[in-house]
Design goal:
Number of helices: 6
Strand content: under 5%
Radius of gyration: 19 Å
Shape: globular
Length: 166
């Protein structure tokens, strides 16, 4: 098995997710990690032990609706479950023996991106190569919404409207 291909798949996943704007990107990824938790239900090889894992990942995915960190934890949980299936269970794709191993290599790439807050990689690349920008700005986090309670640039507190209370 080529060990580089799953890393490339993880990067492509993060690039494609970058096409979705926040907060929809986080919500969509919470759904994705919840679905990944149920991937082995139809024959993972651990019988009824598959169900507690699905329940755990469903909880983590639910918490991921409001937290990129929980989505990252969900992908790492799935990585561990992939490794267990690679060693003792059935592969995630029955026609490809090393599918669970490949998934266990791909998932931490996605988890790292999630722990960084799921930034738009496309925006980071654009910022990095924009004329007049230095490499020091490449680490800027672009997926965080602006702080709407901060004072306006003129320094007058309260001159900027605050976000409505929920």
């Amino acid at each position: 098995m080529n060990l580089v291909s799953p890393v490339i798949v993880g990067i492509i996943y993060c690039l494609l997710m970058s096409l979705i704007r926040e907060p929809h990107r986080r919500h969509f990824n919470a759904i994705m990690v919840g679905g990944a938790g149920a991937a082995y239900l139809s024959g993972g090889g651990f019988g009824p032990w598959e169900l507690p894992f699905v329940a755990l990942t469903a909880y983590v995915a639910y918490r991921g609706l409001d937290s990129w960190a929980f989505i990252g934890v969900g992908w790492l949980l799935h990585t561990a479950w992939d490794m267990a299936h690679h060693v003792k269970g059935n592969p995630i794709l029955p026609f490809y023996h090393d599918a669970s191993l490949a998934c266990a290599i791909c998932d931490p790439v996605i988890a790292l991106w999630c722990f960084r807050g799921g930034p738009s990689l496309i925006a980071l690349i654009r910022r990095r190569f924009r004329p007049g920008r230095t490499a020091d700005h490449a680490h800027d986090h672009v997926s965080t919404p602006p702080d709407r309670t901060a004072p306006a640039p003129d320094g007058q507190p309260g001159s900027r409207k605050t976000a409505p209370a929920s």
